[in-house]
From TrEMBL:
This is FeS cluster assembly SUF system, ATPase SufC. Residues 56-302 form the ABC transporter domain. The lineage of its organism: Eukaryota, Viridiplantae, Streptophyta, Embryophyta, Tracheophyta. PROSITE patterns: ABC_TRANSPORTER_1, ABC_TRANSPORTER_2. Signal peptide: none annotated. It comes from the Eukaryota. GO terms for molecular function: ATP binding; ATP hydrolysis activity. InterPro entries: AAA+_ATPase, ABC_transporter-like_ATP-bd, ABC_transporter-like_CS, FeS-cluster_ATPase_SufC, P-loop_NTPase. SUPFAM superfamilies: P-loop containing nucleoside triphosphate hydrolases. It holds the Pfam family ABC_tran. Keywords: ATP-binding, Nucleotide-binding.
């Protein structure tokens, strides 16, 4: 699913048509009434290393469900620097996945206030595909199937779209095959996987591996993993986590959304944030996850 909102082909294709139906740029207006302000917790905890660049800065972000106008994000503040791994945890309905979708420009949500700066640019002014071409990647909870489009063709078109964006020549099928083979090994996927249609008939684990294969092929400066551990057994989670860790560099960053501590044992976060009622209410280290595992979210209200 991650690539469905990312890349435009030079001529209409099943990918392009599907993407146009699924995602459009997030529209936004400024609020007409006063909203509560919450200080950026991560800004206060940010690294003192002045050489680190700020990748993402979210200030007082508010958003509603476009169809109903129901407020779903209520003043989110978050700062992510290069090389950092952040995790967001929270109860169902707290706004975790909505936050991820708003960042990539999902049409179901409308931004009503605040700002989002990605690599020094106003993210809210970018169209959905421009956000991904700029280096933002979202791995969705439930990737959809695209009948009639092979993984090989899909990934090659997506990768060549990125190369065009960077002013680089496109790869032909043979060149791309040479490029993708090491990526398959990284994610522990057989080469036959490339001949199958995108996510068609895939198990839950295969879909998640396919998302990470897309990430390995494209690269990203900020990767958002929306419950990547959902539906994975321990072995599959270990393989996926190993691939994600291998893709980490000193200049890219990861934002994970999860319910479970076990993911944090494989991908070590620098910061853990608790989201509650559409905003980040607490930020800390792995000790927060330990408290949650033992005492649940009620402990967050008193700790």
């Amino acid at each position: 699913m991650a690539l469905l909102n990312q890349f435009r082909c030079t001529s209409p294709s099943p990918i392009t048509l599907f993407k146009q139906q699924q995602l459009t740029p997030t529209s936004f207006t400024f609020p007409r009434h006063h909203r509560r302000k919450y200080p950026s917790l991560t800004a206060a905890l940010a690294s003192e290393d002045s050489n680190k660049k700020l990748v993402l800065e979210v200030k007082d972000l508010t958003a509603v469900i476009a169809e109903t106008g129901k407020e779903i994000l209520n003043g989110v503040n978050l700062s992510i620097y290069e090389g950092e791994v952040h995790a967001i945890m929270g109860k169902n309905g707290s706004g975790k996945s909505t936050f991820a979708k708003v960042l990539v420009g999902h049409r179901d949500y409308e931004v009503t206030g605040g700002s989002v700066v990605f690599k020094g640019e106003n993210l809210l002014e970018m169209e959905a595909e421009d956000r991904s071409l700029a280096g933002l990647f979202l791995s969705f909870q439930s990737p959809v199937e695209i009948p009639g489009v092979s993984n090989s063709d899909f990934l090659q078109m997506a990768y060549n779209a990125r190369r065009r964006k960077l002013g680089q020549p496109e790869l032909d099928p043979l060149q791309f095959y040479g490029y993708i083979m090491p990526k398959l090994e990284m994610v522990n996927i057989n080469a036959d996987f490339l001949n199958r249609n995108v996510n068609e008939g895939f198990s839950g684990g295969e879909k998640k591996r396919n998302e990470i294969l897309q990430l390995a092929v494209l690269g990203a400066e900020l990767t958002i993993l929306d419950e990547i551990d959902s539906g994975l057994d321990v072995d599959a989670l270990r393989d996926v986590s190993k691939a994600i860790n291998a893709l980490m560099t000193p200049t890219n960053s990861v934002l994970m959304i999860t319910h479970y501590r076990r993911l944090l044992e494989f991908i070590k976060p620098d910061y853990i944030h608790i989201m509650d009622d559409g905003r980040i209410s607490k930020t800390g280290d792995i000790s927060i996850a330990n408290i949650l595992e033992k005492e649940g979210y009620k402990a967050m209200a008193t700790s």
